[in-house]
């Protein structure tokens, strides 16, 4: 093998998403004289900016897509190599990339993210949304669409059905209420009317900085912001870009071909049973059984017995960890969800290999107030903590599980409302051993508190409630709130003063 195809680094991180970039930055700054490599399949990396610690555990930040040179300029000891990993030899401590590079490492962190769990592979009428490329493909197809079927009930589906205008949306959710991953039927009830009202006007500005890769690079990777045949510009669709974040739809117009604002019909407790092309549908007995289905390129038959023709189907049914290139020939312990199982030091079961972000599954006994969810915030926290654990290992130092894993906390926006989720916000794992307090003002706020044995274990705050810090403290200090009863949510009591 020619010498320049073999490289050796002390630390290698795979993945240019939030987890990988945060981990690589942590290592490069802690070991300025060590060689650190960030290996990534996509030409742009994701960087955290405007980081704000809102409270002890709640954090907010923006994410920018940046060319990799920005990282290399900031950390002279950090090399960003754009080449997808195709194999890992864990015993030999080497990685092989699709470009024929062989990379040796002392310590490795895998942050290769996840892939959309598609209803079906290779059906041109079924789209998943994961990265900038797929979001732009969706936008292009939507601009000509009159009706789409959205399948899924997680964050992406929630945002999508709210953001899409000018196109009828049939939303198939497998649960009894929308947004089951994030909240209960009460919160869903609070949010549903937003689907029938016009969206507030918002300037189409782009919060996230975008870069266009032009010239030779464009033939190698994805040209963000560029036009043309996007799929043709990619080196291979099997090499994914980084996952999008909360503001993925900002700056792109999600408008269909019709002159309507929102037109969403929810099909509860239904999943897709079968997908038919136009021709297959006409030949099937369904065509005669359901005469009013119109003429569409694709048809989705749902488990509730209804069939809908549409322009295309969006499969927003979650992600599967992107572990494939790393497994062959190695013996990683995998979790039930197929993630790389990591211990409380973010270590996998293979020597000197760590993992962070969407690709991994927390295998430690978690705090009773925390659960893993494949979210931006957790990708950052895990990447940062994995970097610190790798450093501690090299320096033979001990390190405790970081405080951010004490309490689950997440801030986001759904249907244009601020949403804060704390602890066991949905009573996860509590069964009947829970009591709920709810305060709701239609169109204004929805506050739910989960109590067990008089102690607060979780909360859902929708709207500008200003309660997050106080509730976070009450959850963390596990004070017995029995004496306060329902007064806890009395809007006439300044709860912050109360507990100060
Ligand atoms: P990713 O960002 O997926 O990065 C993986 C990286 O690995 C990429 O750079 C990729 O190119 C690289 N890679 C993959 N395979 C290889 C390989 N073989 N070799 C080399 N490199 C490789 N989270 C929230 O908190 N709030 C939200 O509102 C929210 N909305 C979302 C909306 C959408 C549409 C999507 C798709 C996700 C959303 N998420 C949201 C989830 C969030 O984006 C992810 O949890 C997070 O970005 C995961 O970060 P990561 O670094 O683990 O993985």
TrEMBL record:
Superkingdom of the organism of origin: Eukaryota
Domain FAD/NAD(P)-binding: 10-163, 300-383
Region of interest: Disordered: 222-241
Cofactors named for this entry: FAD
Record bears the keyword Calcium: no
Name of the protein in its database record: Pyridine nucleotide-disulfide oxidoreductase domain-containing protein 1
UniProt keyword Magnesium present: no
Alphabetical keyword list: FAD, Flavoprotein, Oxidoreductase
Gene3D superfamilies linked to this entry: FAD/NAD(P)-binding domain
Native organism: Salvelinus namaycush
SUPFAM superfamilies named among the record's database cross-references: FAD/NAD(P)-binding domain
GO molecular function terms attached to this record: oxidoreductase activity
Pfam family, one: Pyr_redox_2
Domain NADH-rubredoxin oxidoreductase C-terminal: 411-478
